[in-house]
Amino acid sequence: MDPALDALIRSAARREGLIGLAGGLPSARQFPKRALAEAFARALSTPASAGSALQYGWPEGQDRLRAQIAAGLAQRGLKIAPADIVITHGAQQALTLAIDCVGRRGDWLVADEVSYPSALQLFRARGLRLDALDSSKLRQARLAYVMPVVSNPTGQSLLAAERRRLLARNALFIIEDDAYAELAFAGPPGRPLWAEAPERTFHIGTFSKVLCPGLRVGWLVMPPRFRQRVRELKEATDLQAGTLSQIVVSDYLTRHDFAERVARLRRYYARRAERLAEALSKHAPFWRWAEPAGGFSIWVETDSEVAETPFLRAALKEGVSFDPGSLFRLTQATSPLGFRLCFSAAAPDTFAEGCRRLARAWRRVARR
Prior knowledge:
Aspartate Aminotransferase, domain 2, 42% helix, four-stranded antiparallel sheet, alpha/beta, Aspartate Aminotransferase, domain 1, globular, 13 helices
């Protein structure tokens, strides 16, 4: 990343009073603080339970939590055993384990033209070559990274034709990132790609978006033939995911209606998405964007050659932030101008003023 851009992003994250349309954070108002506090207390309440919660565990994770995740995925048509699951430190580590299991330096990996920045950073660090899903490189690619239910940053779903093309390529390993799948506004997500191609699909999930990210509990469902390899990589990386966090999540799933919670979150974020879309329509009709199918954000595109670093600097002077588009692009291109606006954490009553400020900053930089 451009050091000047990185410095601006970090300063914005620390700034008080900013209308924060950047970051992609879940709403802290929706964290189940009391329920999690009670789960922590139960985990540490007796010598026996505290001894388990504070002790080392196996690399693959706690048996009860893996069984609960397997039961949840079974409702989506994914028939797996708990042994097919490894508990990870969030979705990012699950992604890393999958890539380190089957990726090789120099391999072609195809993904959406705009995609999750930390995934792209990982792929580049591993020496993979990147191109778009709809490019000719699909025929020679060895890996594909997709967020089929709800993508980041666009909030869109994988098209049926693209899904068929991926599944038709029998030599292609598929990395299926379902971090936002539960937050599809239309309702519970359908069958994962793993259900269609279990021998070559790595399915990734996380509790970060629907409970809280601070627990750092995610999971990886791997093809059965890679079960031992993934466990070995996990053990070599960090021995195990935190036992205490796993037990707390498992306790929460046991005592609370998780499906009802997720349904409530869908409604909560859908209302926020609608409010931000209304604000964009009113104050920035000259930009292009599509209403998201779920998730935390709206992806905005323009035909403008306005440079993103001066635009971000101008926006911060106006008191509003956004996520620069180059972070999400496979090519890392800074133009034409594109950016991500997040509706998940900021207060909805700030959206209109935030979009007004963004439009004002854009006009000022465009004139220069």
